[in-house]
Specification:
Length: 285
């Protein structure tokens, strides 16, 4: 039995015959995503995005094209130039997703999940952030990074190695190369696997709270003020959600308006919440 056959039951690809787009950088994780999506019977298009940051990126695009052809997938090359400088990682990610379809599949693994949970914890994220990434756009999130490398080795694929993945200037790299090994040593166990399992549990609990919060009308000040605080926060957060969830401080200020401690408050993005009688309204400033 091949590694693909062993790994597929732990993935969450859509049914065979479904059209999917896979973001394939040429690294081991994204190549494994491509291979397993094809093995799952999906109609796959591999998209390589070149940010123009490294001279070898053009060669990596050719390698992805060859891998796509070998496994029966389509191929698209995109360019999304990013200039070196501050916030490079975030700017590159934004540029990449600007040229990818919104339902693109990515090759994040359980190791990426653990890193994301720790990064979100360091940012002060709440329950949703500690739930990490869901399986929807991340069908190989249940696999480990060592397994994607082993799959590539078995198939004779040569993954690209991005030197920026070792640059300690990026916080994720410090979490990967310094923090997680230290936690493994302190705990005397595989902490990445533990964090990935915890993220799954926390996402389930978050979904349960969201379902309960749906019964709360966030424009009803009296109902909002009377609701349990965890549910009231979730109702307000969903009400205010735009491209990104609102800041925790903004949610708390809205709850203060619902209690009558204030008549209005700014909530970001040029908007505010005001109260008239027992009703709250969201309006542009």
């Amino acid at each position: 039995m091949s590694s693909s056959d062993l790994l597929l039951p732990r993935t969450t690809f859509p049914p065979a015959g479904t059209d999917v787009t896979c973001a394939v950088s040429g690294g081991a994780d994204s190549l494994a995503l491509l291979v397993l999506a094809c093995a799952a019977g999906c109609r796959v298009t591999a998209v390589h995005v070149d940010h123009g940051l490294r001279p070898e990126s053009a060669h990596e695009a050719h390698a992805v094209r060859a891998a796509a052809a070998r496994f029966g997938a389509g191929f698209v090359a995109e360019r999304a130039p990013v200039e070196p400088g501050p916030n490079l990682e975030a700017r590159a990610r934004a540029a990449r997703f600007a040229v990818l379809p919104p339902d693109v599949l990515t090759g994040h693994t359980a190791d990426d999940q653990a890193e994301t949970v720790l990064l979100n914890l360091l940012r002060g994220a709440g329950l949703d952030g500690l739930g990490g990434m869901g399986p929807g756009r991340h069908p190989i999130i249940g696999l480990r990074r060592a397994e994607t490398w082993a799959l590539c080795d078995e198939l004779g694929l040569e993954p690209a190695r991005d030197p920026s993945n070792d640059d300690p200037a990026f916080r994720r790299n410090r979490v990967r190369h310094e923090l997680l090994p230290l936690l493994d040593d302190v705990a005397q166990r595989d902490v990445a696997a533990l964090l990935a399992r915890q993220a799954d549990l926390l996402r389930e609990e978050a979904a349960f709270l969201d379902a309960l919060a749906e019964s709360i009308d966030p424009t009803d000040a009296k109902a909002l003020a009377a609701a349990p605080a965890p549910l009231a926060r979730r109702a307000v957060r969903e009400w205010l959600r735009g491209d990104h969830p609102p800041a925790a401080a903004a949610v708390e200020r809205v709850l203060a308006v619902a209690r009558g401690d204030a008549v209005a408050t700014e909530v970001g993005d040029g908007r505010r919440v005001a109260r008239t009688g027992q009703r709250l309204r969201l309006e542009d400033q």
